[in-house]
Design goal:
The complex is a heterodimer of chains A (415) and B (235). Chain A is α+β, with helices and mostly antiparallel strands and 415 residues long. Chain A folds into two domains: 182 residues, no CATH class; 190 residues, no CATH class. Chain A is built from 14 helices and eleven strands. In chain A, strands 1, 2, 3, 4, 5, 6, 7, 8, 9, 10 and 11 form an eleven-stranded mixed beta sheet that branches. In chain A, strand 7 and strand 8 form a beta hairpin. Chain B has a single domain, classed as P-loop containing nucleotide triphosphate hydrolases (Rossmann fold, 3-Layer(aba) Sandwich), CATH 3.40.50. Chain B contains eight helices and ten strands. In chain B, the strands form two sheets. Chain B has a six-stranded mixed beta sheet. Classes of the chains: A alpha+beta (415), B alpha/beta (235). The interface between A and B is large, with 48 and 56 residues. The structure holds adenosine-5'-triphosphate and magnesium ion. The site of adenosine-5'-triphosphate has 11 residues of chain B, from strand 2 and helix 1.
Chain lengths: 415, 235
């Protein structure tokens, strides 16, 4: 038998005077394994009690991720749109009737010093049909617009197929389709010389546009040249809207003089706005929703924390004997406290990691469905983990203290 | 009766232990016992006579109300919590009636826990645990969990855990109390073997035959030592 017992004997013979005892020690790596032992042996309970934290963290990461993703998307739109784009449209005057912009409004505006380029569009009361046999009332909600040749460059637009209107094509019956309009008619390329019946004339499709950032109206339009519009439909070309691109440093100054310039007679009936500002407002509205959901996430975190505290208190009661045994094996109160604190921290860490993963997953799914780029803010991930650990620490503190305070003899009493 | 100046493995001098209450319970009422290195003794006595209380005081799980407790030449009755933990970690091995093995882990890991709080690396703990399991004759059960073992086997695992840190003294509170006769005999035989190899062992038992088979008996009644066969023999 044994080396163990032989050394024991020699130890005892030399026991006078008593050597100083080394203190009880629990290695750091053992703190982790001891702290996780309770979780490993009760996997189902571990999973369920981590769930509360997980849901809370997932809510917060998801909400922050979605709000970041949607804001990034808005910023992208704003960037594409440019902050130096202004629009002029006939506002509703004091009389309540719709105002009308003078035909020469765009020309006058382009004479303002810092204005770089302008383009106006005129909405026409014509219908668009695939052929002349369909009842004119059965149109697909698409509007016909007479557009300035400058429109594409003013709005930084792009074509997905074909060509844009130029001086020659604008004077003849040619049409360029907005992205939605093209989709409605199932037209994806312009090679076949497709004809559309507009008003009572045939027009040839020469181009298809990419979607405009925040100009959904144009996406749902078919665009023809202004010369051909006035010739075939005999309409006055009062602009429905004038797009104005200015020197970025004079946006406010230009905006201030736009109404008087566009319509010197009734400037109060002119509305000059800045689309990028609208997007920013939209941003602010989404912020308040974000706050609401963050609040809900915080509540579920709190509930999750209470859940962990509860489970830990139960664990301490159930594992009294284990605590007593560990004390008998030489554990100090600090070792016991550390064990249960570690257990609670690990529990919340599991919840935190699961929550972050779930939050990212939800963000990813939703952002993709919206066509946004997926943005997961580092702050949300780091903040989520810190919050989870803080909750685990607080929730575990009281149970851990209770476990540590338990007297060994009391803990060892058979249950 | 001090034997030739050699320090006792464990000595209680005039130990009193009172539990608060109305009136207070005097579980130990002036107990003096000296245990020399290499002894194997039985503590007997009726239920409630203070046997477990004395064992807890001997093992520093509890402190006496008054009196002196010396372990391996150290006066421990005024030790701090931390120092008492160090005493338990290095000098004492416990064996309990209901084993107190951890359910979820294997025999070798349960035994290795006997060294958990002495700062030894896990590799060495497991090596020594395997050796201790060999000592108790359970080399073939290293990776069994407690649920897969008989009561006798479990108690032998617990004994392996108690000896793995090579303690000055092993304290066993009714180690055969939950075992059938055959298993009891195996366990007591094991304790005797360990004693033959030099271990100092104190065993509380209700079983008169078990007690009679041991070299020394200390009988308790009402918190006092009623009879100590070592002193009776000297007389
Ligand atoms: N924590 C405690 N608080 C109050 N009284 C206690 C406590 N622990 C033990 N006692 C009392 O001290 C006395 C001695 O108890 P102890 O457990 O030492 O007896 P025992 O000899 O081990 O008995 P048994 O053979 O039944 O295990 C008993 O009267 C018991 O009720
Ligand atoms: Mg007892």
């Amino acid at each position: 038998m044994t080396a163990i017992l032989d050394t024991e004997q020699t130890q005892k013979a030399s026991a006078t005077p008593p050597t100083k005892l080394p203190p009880s020690r629990l290695l750091l790596i053992d703190v982790l394994s001891v702290g996780s032992s309770g979780l490993r042996s009760r996997k189902m309970r571990t999973a369920l009690s981590a769930l509360g934290i997980m849901i809370g963290i997932a809510a917060m990461v998801g909400v922050l991720g979605l709000s970041e993703s949607s804001q990034a998307d808005l910023r992208k739109q704003i960037e594409a749109l440019g902050t130096n784009l202004l629009t002029v449209s006939p506002g509703s005057g004091f009389g309540g009737g719709d105002g009308v912009l003078p035909e020469e409004a765009a020309a006058k505006i382009s004479r303002i010093g810092p204005v770089e380029i302008t383009a106006d569009v005129v909405t026409l009361e014509q219908s668009v049909l695939r052929n002349n046999l369909v009842n004119a009332n059965e149109t697909s909600g698409l509007s016909v617009v007479a557009a300035d040749e400058n429109l594409l460059s003013t709005l930084n637009g792009a074509l997905s197929a074909g060509i844009w209107l130029d001086e020659a094509t604008a004077a003849t019956p040619n049409v360029v389709l907005g992205s939605v309009a093209a989709e409605r008619h199932g037209i994806i390329d312009v090679s076949g010389g497709i004809q559309l019946y507009i008003g009572d004339e045939w027009f040839t499709v020469i181009g298809i546009l990419e979607p405009f950032p925040l100009a959904a109206d144009l996406d749902r339009s078919v665009l023809i040249g202004q010369p051909v519009a006035s010739e075939l439909f005999e309409v006055e070309l009062n602009p429905s809207i004038v797009y104005v691109r200015t020197d970025p440093s004079f946006v406010d100054d230009v905006r201030a003089v736009l109404p008087a310039t566009a319509d010197p007679a009734t400037p109060e009936e002119v509305e000059a706005s800045r689309p990028s500002e609208l997007l920013e407002t939209q941003n602010a509205i989404e912020d308040s929703f974000t706050n609401l959901f963050l609040g809900l996430g915080a509540v579920s975190l709190l509930v999750g924390g209470v859940g962990i505290a509860n489970v830990m208190v139960i664990a301490v009661i159930e594992r009294r004997n284990e605590i007593g045994l560990r004390r008998a094996l030489g554990a100090t109160r600090a070792h016991i406290r550390r064990q249960f604190l570690t257990e609670s921290l690990l529990l919340s860490l599991i919840g935190g990691i699961g929550g972050v993963a779930l939050g990212i997953f939800v963000t990813w799914i939703y952002a993709r469905s919206q066509g946004w780029d997926v943005v997961v803010p580092t702050l949300a991930v780091v903040g989520g983990m810190v919050a989870a650990l803080a909750i685990g620490g607080v929730a575990g503190l009281y149970p851990a203290m209770r476990a540590a305070r338990l007297a060994p003899t009391e803990a060892l009493r058979a249950a | 009766m001090t034997s030739a100046g050699l320090p006792a493995a464990l000595e209680l001098i005039d130990v009193v232990k009172e539990y608060p209450g109305l009136p207070p319970v005097r579980a130990l009422d002036g107990v003096s016992v000296r245990i020399d290195p290499g002894e194997l003794l039985a503590i007997v006595g009726p239920s409630g006579s203070g046997k477990s209380t004395m064992l807890n005081v001997m093992g520093t799980l509890d402190l006496p109300t008054s009196g002196s407790v010396q372990i391996d030449g150290r006066e421990v009755s005024n030790f701090s919590e931390r120092k008492l933990s160090a005493v338990r970690s290095h000098l004492i091995g416990f064996v309990f009636q209901s084993f107190f093995l951890l359910d979820g882990i294997t025999a070798v890991d349960n035994v290795a826990n006997g060294l958990l709080y002495s700062g030894v690396s896990s590799r060495i703990r497991r090596q020594r645990a395997a050796a201790a399991l060999e000592t108790v004759g359970l080399s073939h059960r290293l990776n069994h969990v407690p649920n897969q073992m008989s009561g006798g086997e479990r108690q032998r695992v617990a004994i392996a855990r108690a000896i793995v840190n090579e303690p000055s003294i092993i304290l066993a509170d009714e180690p055969t109390g939950n075992l059938d006769t055959a298993s009891s005999e195996t366990v007591m035989g094991l304790l005797r073997d360990l004693n033959d190899a030099g271990s100092t062992i104190v065993v509380i038992t209700h079983d008169k035959d078990v007690a009679a088979a041991l070299p020394r008996q200390v009988a308790f009644r009402d918190g006092r030592v009623e009879l100590d066969s070592a002193l009776a023999g000297a007389r």
